[in-house]
Inverse folding.
């Protein structure tokens, strides 16, 4: 069970978040300031921290730096009001995984948390593969040497250096995500983000916002601009797992984005070019 540390001086918010996260299967700890947070991290070593920007005494950005000194692998998601976006961006540069603005939707927060944990675990798996096998031989040694596998490996080596959209097909449990990760690791994009999206895990009402992002005021609760997964994967690789779980309407918009290499935020008049 993953553990999450909540650092916020609002007692009601601490209680609400603790209840919500426990219902989702997480173990939670909640504290009100930086001093208590540092003490708790040293004692319990949580997997992830939800950290408010504005705290009494040591502010969230300063606390983030201290947290990272104690545990460089700690995943940190900043909680911020709209007016503190500059501080949140600074926090990202200092090692925060993401930020979410108050007031936020609990479903959206859970999605961000799960993606952060997933991304962290994938990164650790890749590091282990690189250490054990070496970058040049990891692909072949990891998935076998049969004639069928060797054919797949040759295809990987053909598409990895390109910017082509790749369709990976296979039964559940056959390693489609591992194959996508290997394409990424053998490409010029290996040092950029690898973003995996579990298409069936996103609520229908949040799919377009999650993929394409939204503008402030685009819908109720959209209190700030938000990047979608396409933008977060900019310059890297985006893996959409089980796209058939998306509605036909979303699949049409997804196809257009892939064909035209352009996306549009919900509520945005212009478009952004995909790289």
């Amino acid at each position: 069970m993953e553990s999450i540390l909540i650092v916020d001086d609002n007692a009601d918010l601490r209680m609400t978040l603790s209840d919500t996260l426990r219902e989702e299967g997480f173990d939670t700890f909640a504290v009100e300031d930086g001093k208590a947070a540092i003490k708790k991290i040293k004692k319990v070593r949580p997997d992830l921290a939800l950290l408010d920007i504005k705290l009494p005494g040591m502010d969230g950005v300063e606390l983030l730096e201290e947290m990272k000194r104690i545990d460089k692998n700690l995943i940190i998601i900043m909680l911020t009001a709209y007016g503190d976006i500059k501080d949140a961006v600074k926090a990202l540069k200092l090692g925060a995984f993401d930020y979410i603005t108050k007031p936020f939707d609990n479903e959206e927060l859970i999605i961000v948390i799960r993606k952060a944990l997933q991304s962290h675990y994938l990164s650790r798996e890749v590091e282990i593969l690189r250490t054990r096998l070496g970058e040049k031989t990891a692909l072949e040694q990891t998935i076998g040497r049969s004639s069928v596998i060797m054919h797949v490996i040759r295809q990987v080596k053909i598409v990895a250096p390109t910017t082509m959209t790749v369709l990976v097909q296979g039964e559940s449990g056959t390693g489609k995500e591992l194959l996508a990760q290997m394409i990424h690791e053998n490409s010029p994009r290996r040092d950029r983000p690898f973003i995996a999206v579990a298409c069936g895990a996103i609520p229908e009402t949040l799919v377009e916002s999650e993929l394409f992002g939204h503008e402030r005021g685009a819908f109720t609760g959209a209190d700030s601009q938000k990047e979608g997964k396409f933008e977060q994967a900019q310059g890297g690789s985006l893996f959409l797992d089980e796209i058939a779980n998306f509605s036909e309407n979303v699949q049409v918009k997804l196809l257009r984005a892939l064909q035209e290499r352009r996306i549009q935020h919900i509520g945005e008049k212009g478009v952004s070019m995909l790289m």
